[in-house]
Amino acid sequence: MTWEPQIFKTLHQIPREEHVFPGTPLCAGCGGLESLRLAAKVLGSRVVYVDAAGCMTNLAAFPFTPLDASWLYTTMGSAPAGAQGVRDALDVLIAKGRVPKEEDVQVVVLGGDGSTYDMALSSTSGAITRQLDFYYFCYDNEAYGNTGVQLSPATPYGARTTTSPCAVQHPAGTTQEKKDIFEIWRAHRPPYMATVSPRFPLDLEEKFARAAAYKGPKLFLAFAACPTGWLFDPAQTPDVARLAVECGLWPLKEAVNGVVVHTYWPKLTPVEEYLKLQGRFRHLFEPVVQTEAIAHIQERVHGYWARVKREEGNS
Amino acid sequence: MLSIRFHGRGGQGAKTASRIVGTAAFLEGYHAQDSPVYGAERRGAPVAAFTRIDHSPIHERGVIARPDLVVIADASLIRDPAARVADGVDERTVVFVNSSLSPDQVSVQAALPGRLTALDLTGIALREFGKRGAISALLGAVAGRLSGLHRDSIRDAVARELADLGLSSAVIERNQAVALDCFDQVPVVSVEPGGPRPAPPVQLHRPTYDAPTKGTASITVGPNSGLRSMSGWRTFRPVLRPDLCNGCWLCFANCPEGAITIKPDGKPAVYYPHCKGCLDCVEVCPTDAMTVEREPQGVQP
C-alpha cells in the first residue's frame, strides 16, 4: 500500500495566507521556523500556542509577535501541563456558556527536542494518557540549540555538540544513539502522529490536514535543520533537510491509532552525502576518515529500512 | 592596555576574530582576554566581541565602553542603532570598516569621530575562497596588524582557532594565506593603547515609548513583527529574474520567513524589509531564476 496525498497534491495548493508573519528574531535559514510557518497555514489562527522554553520562545519577544494566534509561555518541562490547563479552562467556560462554542481554539504545544525528548517527557506522557485534545509540534534540531548547542537525547551518534566534542576518548563526538521519541509516543497509542520535513512541504501540509480529523493527542516531529548549531551555511537548509530524508536518517511517516505507514520511500543515498554538508560531522572525515563511525551510522539506517520493508511489505 | 571591540553579524566571525587576536597576543607573551556578547538573536543579528591585551594581568572585565580599536565586520552595522558601533569612539579611536569603499569615502559617509581605515574583506573572501562564508581569520589578521602584533603569531593563532572550529587543514592553510595578505594590505593607522580612561559621564535618558499600535501595553495585539526591518541582517540578497521564473512556488514554500509572497500573476516577489538573506530560495530554485547579489556597500540607508 503506497501512501498517497489526498488533499495537497501540488505546491500551488499551499495557502498564500500567512499565520506566522515575518520579522522574528530567529536565525536566518531556520528549518524549524519554516516547518512552523507551513504548519500554521493549515492550523490557521484559532490557536493557542503553548510554548516550552526554547528557540521558539524568541518568536513572541515583547512587544512584537509574528502570530495572529494566542501565546502562552511555559517552562521547558511543563508545556503539556499548560496545554491541559488551557484546554480544561476552555471546556469549562464553553460548558458554562461563558465562551461561545464557535470561539473555541486549538491548543498547540511548541517544543524543541530538549523539552520533547527530555525535560517535558513526564508531563507529555501524562497528557497523552489523559487523552488531552492537543497538537504537539516539536522542532527537532537535535541539540539544546537556544542555550548554545549542548547535547540532547535527540543528538545522533557522531554529531559534535559543545558538550559532546570530538575528543581523544570519544573521537566520534556523540556516542549515544538518538532517542526514538516516536516509538515512546506510539506506546501511548495516541490517535495521530507524524514526522515532517520542511523540504517536503506537501507531505507536511497533508499530514496537518489529516490530523485535524482526530481528537486527542497529535504529535508532529518536524526536522529543524539548524545552520547555527549544525554548522552549515543558511542557504543549505533545503539541501540538509532533503538529504536527511533521502539518506533514510529522517523517515517521513505517520501513525494513525498506532499503525505506522511510511509516507515517502527514500532513495537511501549514502549517509556521507548528508554528513559531509555539516560542520558537526566534519571530524568524521578530517583529519582522518572515521570509517567505522560512518559505517555504524549507515548500518543503523539500513537496519531501520530493512525492518520497515518487512513490516510494511513495500519497496 | 589595548582594548579592541569587534562588531559583526552572527555567523560572520567577529567572535572568532577576537579569539584570534587574543591568542596571537598570548603567543607573544602578553596577557590577553577575549569574550563575545550577543543576545537571543543570532545568525545575522548584531554581535560584539571584546579583546583586551596588556603587559600585566588584566583585572577589568565586561564590555569595552572606551575602545582603542573598533573593528566593524559589516558596514551596515554603522547605521544599525542596535549595534552601537559608535559607543565610546572618540577622535583618537582607530576604526576599521570592512568595506569596498576607500577609507576617505567611508570616513565621509560613516560620520564616526575616529580615525578610519578600511579594506574590502568580503570582496577578498569572495575572490579567494569563491564562496560566501565567515571572515574571522581576515578580521583577526587586520585587527592584529592594527594592534601591532606579529605576522607569525597571527598565522599560528589563525591555525589554532580555526582548528578548534573543526575546519580541515586545507581550509585553515588557505585562510592563513588570505589572512596574511589582508595583514599586509590593510592601511595602517597607529593605535595608541591608552591606560584606563574614565568612563563617559552617565547620561540619563528620558524614556520614549512606541505608539500603542506597535504593541506596547497590549497583550491582545495582532501580528506586528512585520514592523521590524530585517534588512540589516543580510550581507547578500536574493534577486528574482522574472524571465527565468517558471512559477513553481518552491521559493515561496521554502522561505522560512514568509518574506516571499505570490503576486496575482502567480509569480513570487521578495519583500526585502523582511528578508534575512538566508538564500534558501536561491538553493531550491529549479530554473536558477533566483540569483545572489552582494548588498550595496554604501553606509547611508
Task: Summarize, please.
The complex is a heterodimer of chains A (315) and B (301). Chain A has 315 residues and is an alpha/beta fold.
How would you describe the overall organization of this protein?
The complex is a heterodimer of chains A (315) and B (301). Chain A has 315 residues and is an alpha/beta fold. In chain A, 33% of the residues lie in helices and 14% in strands. An 8-stranded mixed β-sheet of chain A has the order 2-1-3-4-6-5-7-8, with helices on both faces. In chain A, α1 packs across α6 (201-211). The termini of chain A are close together. Chain B is α/β, with parallel strands linked by helices. Helices cover 28% and strands 18% of the residues of chain B. Chain B contains 8 helices and 10 strands. In chain B, a hairpin with an 8-residue loop joins β2 and β3 (46-54). The chains are: A alpha/beta (315), B alpha/beta (301). At the A-B interface, α1 and α8 of A face α7 and α8 of B.
Largest sheet of chain B: 6 strands, mixed
Pattern of helices and strands of chain B: EHEEEEHEHHHHEHEEHE
Task: State the helical fraction of chain A.
Answer: 25-40%
Task: Give the second-level CATH assignment, the architecture of chain A.
Answer: 3-Layer(aba) Sandwich
For CATH, the homologous superfamily of the largest domain in chain B is named as Pyruvate-ferredoxin oxidoreductase, PFOR, domain III
Which chain pair has the greatest contact? A-B, 53 and 54 residues
What is the count of distinct domains of chain B? 2
Unreliable segments of 5+ consecutive residues of chain A? none
Give the uncertain stretches of chain B in residue-range form.
none
Tally of discrete structural domains of chain A = 1
